[in-house]
Amino acid sequence: MTPQTPRTTPHTDALTLEVVELVGTVVARYHEEYEEAAAKHSLTGAQARVLALLSREPMPMRRIAQKLKCEPSNVTGIVDRLEGRGLVERRPDPDDRRVKLAAATEDGRETAGRLRASLNFAREPLAGLSAEERTTLRDLLRRMLGETP
Amino acid sequence: MTPQTPRTTPHTDALTLEVVELVGTVVARYHEEYEEAAAKHSLTGAQARVLALLSREPMPMRRIAQKLKCEPSNVTGIVDRLEGRGLVERRPDPDDRRVKLAAATEDGRETAGRLRASLNFAREPLAGLSAEERTTLRDLLRRMLGETP
DNA sequence: TATTGTTATACTCTATAACTATA
DNA sequence: TATAGTTATAGAGTATAACAATA
């Protein structure tokens, strides 16, 4: 079917371009809703990401920077602001006195939980798909991401 | 099938959570590669988005702000910087002297073209899917986005 | 009076470089 | 010496409010 599709440039045919555009739309909408959900809790996007990270487990400052793919110096300010609001605290690392472990406080974990709940609601479009369709989508996304289990 | 899935919370079952996480990964990777491609042309993400917009058609400043979902005052600075590099120019609107039309220059259109080419390369993971799989992915993404044609 | 674009201001995020305290 | 975190600095994006020109 559709034999006129050139095999030498498989990523520039009309179908692929349409999928690329759809992915772009998903990305845009995802980001809008993430920022919106963060703003409802008076958090910036970066602060929300760090808080979500720390709500799972405490982490050295350096590791946060790696997760965020930014310079370590930036993390200082972000954690400063979260700490100023009582959502995060800095603890010493017993094994290495150079390291500071950033950890979510009880209040921070609560906020992170509410944030995640509102995000899940934002992602609800998936509810429109049947279980079988979600399975198909999962497999296609996995393959797209290079996970070939 | 899978009747144990609670119908009251269809967006919190394990399958959906996995898809949500995969979508999150796609979003993260898409953004990384977009910023990276922009940086290769010495552009920030916002500048690249505006340039891509204007390479298609000239546009009032106000409309750029709507497309970017930001305040109009921000667009002034972004267009200033693009204009300072000769990629964009401001033209008067013949129909309304309050309006300034931002338009990509020849140089700007060229840069936007190279940017898009490098983006298509970045999105090449789609090439790993067959035409049929891409069609399926397209339809699922469409439905996820609420487009029901 | 309402709208368009701009300016002024303040805050956040970002990268770079230099500093400190540990290792 | 090498590493972890911080500080200092500068540039960019963001929202808000006030302004000039035009409708």
Automatic annotation (TrEMBL), chains A, B:
User: Which biological process annotations from GO are given for this protein?
Assistant: response to stress
- UniProt entry keywords in alphabetical sequence: DNA-binding, Transcription, Transcription regulation
Q: Pfam families in the record, alphabetically?
A: MarR (PF01047)
Database matches in SUPFAM superfamilies: Winged helix' DNA-binding domain
* MF terms in GO: DNA binding; DNA-binding transcription factor activity
Keyword set includes Repressor: no
Domain named HTH marR-type: residues: 16-146
Q: Which InterPro entries match?
A: HTH_MarR-typ, MarR/SlyA-like, Tscrpt_reg_MarR-type_CS, WH-like_DNA-bd_sf, WH_DNA-bd_sf
Q: What is this protein called?
A: MarR family transcriptional regulator
Organism placement in taxonomy:
Bacteria, Bacillati, Actinomycetota, Actinomycetes, Kitasatosporales
